[in-house]
Amino acid sequence: MRNRLLATLAPLDFDLLGPELETVALVQDAVLSRAGDQIEHVLFPHSGAISLMIDMADGRTIATAAVGREGVVGSLSVLGPSPSAVTAIVRAAGTASRIPSSRFQAAFNRSPAIRHAVQIHMRAMLIQFQLGAACNGLHPVKARMARWLLHLCDYIGDDVLPLTQETLSEILGVRRTTVTLLMRNLRASGAIRVDRRGQIEIDRPRLAAAACECHGAMRLEIEEIFSMNTARSQATVGPDD
Questions:
Q1: How far is residue 208's CA from residue 155's CA, in Å, rounded to a whole number?
Q2: Which of 117, 121, 199, 207 is most buried, judged by most C-beta within 10 A?
Q3: Is 24 helix (H, G, I), strand (E, B) or coil?
Q4: Residue 184: helix, strand or coil by DSSP?
């Protein structure tokens, strides 16, 4: 499986999910779920990137985390029927495996390995939430933009991003005029290029120099979580009888 969490599962555990999984397209800019919606499906991305957004009462938005092929969207459904706290939006197109949340909850209850895989994901997301909150509060917008561009490139495995200035404005929680100015500065330093289709191509070393330390710290922490826990997940016994 191209999804990193699903790939940790032994065949017996994966078989609890496999018959119910369907492959779906993640369409650029598609809203997968909105804050307040019931979580009807759980998605395991194979490729692409999804941002988790907080919607404020005054209409402003800001991204709190991103999910790619290492994670899952909608995993909190295992706690029972509840509305989503965030809006999930596709930022880079790809594909995913989708399963009804009720079927995922049933498999989660039966399999220690699936429960452990969800724990891995939750720990990685907690790192994003914690470091992201500190970054949003302490670091300048230019550094945060560079961090997000690097972060999304990590997820899609490419140095070209199909992001508009409006999208970056939503992710960063700033005005579009601010994004325009920051992109001009990053282009002048050679950290990014924008082609005729509006796609952003990054120069990773130069962009990393403009980013805050949060990108490297977040990436290191998440990789450590996966490296420490993947072997344990693969060694977990099969489904409960």
A1: 16
A2: 117
A3: strand
A4: helix
- Per-residue HEC secondary structure of 72-102 comes to CECHHHHHCCCECCCEEEEEECEEEEEEEHH
User: What is the residue-level pLDDT of the chain in tens, covering all 241 positions?
Assistant: 689 999 989 999 999 999 999 999 999 999 999 999 999 999 999 999 999 999 999 989 999 999 999 999 999 888 877 789 899 999 999 999 999 999 999 999 999 999 999 999 999 999 999 999 999 999 999 999 999 999 999 999 899 999 999 999 999 999 999 999 999 999 999 999 998 788 999 999 999 999 999 999 998 888 888 776 655 555 554 565 5
Q: In which residue are the tokens 């670091």 written?
A: 139
Contact 66, 49 (CB under 8 A): yes
> Encoding tokens for residue 176?
């579009």
> Strand 160-161 vs strand 49-55: parallel, antiparallel, or unpaired?
unpaired
Model-wide pTM > 0.85? yes
Residue type, 170: E
Task: State the amino acid at position 221 in one-letter form.
Answer: E
The pairing of strands 61-67 and 49-55 is antiparallel
